[in-house]
Design a protein that fits this description.
The protein is of the alpha/beta class. It has 13 helices and 15 strands. It has 2 domains: 2-178 and 365-380, Glycogen Phosphorylase B (Rossmann fold, 3-Layer(aba) Sandwich), CATH 3.40.50.2000; 198-363, Glycogen Phosphorylase B (Rossmann fold), CATH 3.40.50.2000. Helix 3 (75-94) crosses helix 4 (104-112), helix 4 packs across helix 5 (133-144) and helix 7 (212-218) packs across helix 11 (332-343). The chain is globular and about 60 Å long.
Amino acid sequence: MRIIHWNILEYPSREANSVINMKTCESFADLGHEVTMLVPRSRERPRVSVAEIFSYYGVRPNFSIVQLPSPSFGGNACFYAFFGLISVLYIHWKRPRVVYSMFGPGSWLLGCTGRGSFFEAHGPPEANAVYYRKASAFFFSRWIRSPRALGIVTNCRSLADYLQRRFNYGTILPEHNAGDPPKAEATATPEHFALDTLHVGYIGQLCPGKGMEVIAAILESCPWAHFHVVGGSESEVMYWRNAKIAPNITFYGSIPFAATEQYRQACDVLLLPFQTTVGTYAGGEYSSHFMSPTKLFEYMRAGKAIISARSRSVEEVLRDGENALLCNGDAPEEWIRALQQLKDNPSLRAQLGAAAQGDLVQHHTWQQRARRILDFFDQHSKAD
């Protein structure tokens, strides 16, 4: 099957969606399909080669990445309009069997030319970057009501139920994000990991609501733990470093996705301390009840104990006391108690980590996810 995966990120990107897109394309290709990821060329950064993009994400080059030219003038509206138009021409030229889109205005435009598409949603249509929010909601609402809307894949059951109620649309496949199966070989231990303390990790963005607020609130109450924070923009990392919140924390800043596994493996406990409303790298925000954090599945793959905030979507995967410990995101005292419990009980840490890793292997690998999505395409695709 010839598939075009269509999204608007400029690669490499700090957005978690970029990891999902790369892993999705790799998995489709692993299953024998001809896959092209269609994206805009970066406007501001020096041009990055396709080989460098694959290396950044640690993904095998078994699919094509086409970076279409895009204007550096005229602002975001001009950028997305031009990319949409040239993408539609490219799609009609290549004539794939399936167009799998994360670009709402582009999906609508493609539909206007008589071509249908599938869409992957990670939140309500208005939960995008501020400069893109109104256009996304406007065009998505028109696409989903058209006969060219072939189906939607959502990142959780909560979002599927929400879209079904809001738009009276039923062709939806809820499909959480995923992770790679664990590797047998050991990874190198980074610096700052002494042997005489509990190592607690957070690997992800530092946008408002992602969880750095919780970590800052519990540091002084956990002097027996050292916190390792990997990720965040330069300005975000500088802000928290200058806050001098406590000595038992190390910030590593943003690193290539392929290099993050060694930090997960070196930790004893991994945190997912998001708030009710979560910010995005691009300036948008969304409810945590609609999120399926990529880091969750990376944590599960590592086989380490997980402490997570509660939300409807995350609790579709995690079960308190079975494969993780769950706390309220706005109750720092619960996080302190959970960390103390894991500090004093290494066997519980091992039990929770093994259960989470087993769930990943059984239900949540990228290839398992890809197979279910491909079956969905087969059931609902139409000849154009």
